[in-house]
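Question thread 4412

I'm putting together a teaching handout and wanted feedback from people who do this every day. The idea is simple: show students a protein as raw sequence, then show them the structure tokens that encode its fold, then repeat with a second protein so they can compare. Below is the first pair exactly as I plan to print it.
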Amino acid sequence: MVPFDYPYVLAGRKSPDRLPKLIAAHQQALAQASRRSDDVRVLIGKSMGSRVGCHVAADEPDILALVCLGYPLRASSGAIRDEALLALRSPILFVQGSRDVLCPLGHLERVRKKMSAESSVYVVDGGNHSLEVGKRQLREDRMTQAEVESRVLEAIRVFLKRWA
């Protein structure tokens, strides 16, 4: 695994750069990681990182699979950002909270029906955009956040075993 930060984060800014600069930074990090290891074949990202990763994977035929944690399908303007998803060829796992306002599950299902890439969804019941479940929901389900996260990791493991 090779984590990286986008240039705006390294510069201490809160506002992300425009999409082309984010894509370029992601491509550069992928190229650097690929030089260190031939095993860089799966992209995993959280929120914006997952969206940018999908743009990168659409142009990278060597990517075997993608895992998107909290994909931000809906822009702050309300527009549905599905262009990268529709261009993908690599299988993708969406890990989404059922209360994620940036990716309503109904919207995601409509986009998935239009996608040519194989896709699946793991839903964190009661989870928000950060996959955090509220305390009341956790009590009702007799679970801890750590158990929720363990289940997420298991879903990712099963997905990667199939595709990567």
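The second pair follows. I'd like the answer to focus on this one:
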Amino acid sequence: MPSLADLAALGAVMLELGPGPGAATEWLRHRVGRLVAVESDGAAVEKLRARFADSNVEVIAGDATNLDFGAETFDSVGTFTMLHHVATTRLQQRVLAESFRVLRPGGVLIGSDSLASNELHLFHAEDTYNPMDPAALLVRLQAVGFGPITLIVDGDLRFVARKPDGATTHRGSDERQ
């Protein structure tokens, strides 16, 4: 994450999607004024709420494919090793589109994920494993309106994508339906 944060200002208010146990949350909360974490797993939500009680972190039970926030609410959005847990390419695209929608113009999406491997496929035998192809991610980020985009492929996949200044809607807004 430090390498990603060096490429983008996170701003005052950040949204983290799919924090899981909160490893990235712990690092991020010291770099923004307010961090909102949206998690779909009820047990994880309760653990995160207890862990980050009385801090600048607000933990919300929710769905990253259909965020319950108005447009242009956040300065930055983060997805850290969560996109491969999204069951389909279409749903992954909705996560990207929702990220774009809730970002303020000039805001940034930062993220990381694992690269496809047989080892990870076996590790995820009992859960969802839908790895992101780096080349496809570039096109998918462009399709919802992000640009410029930085992809780093070096043992894992890291990315920074900016919502252009003045951009208020994303292409493919029907993705929310």
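Top answer:
Good format. For the second protein you could add a caption like this: Strands lie at 13-17, 34-39, 57-61, 74-80, 103-113, 149-153, 157-162. The longest strand covers residues 103-113.
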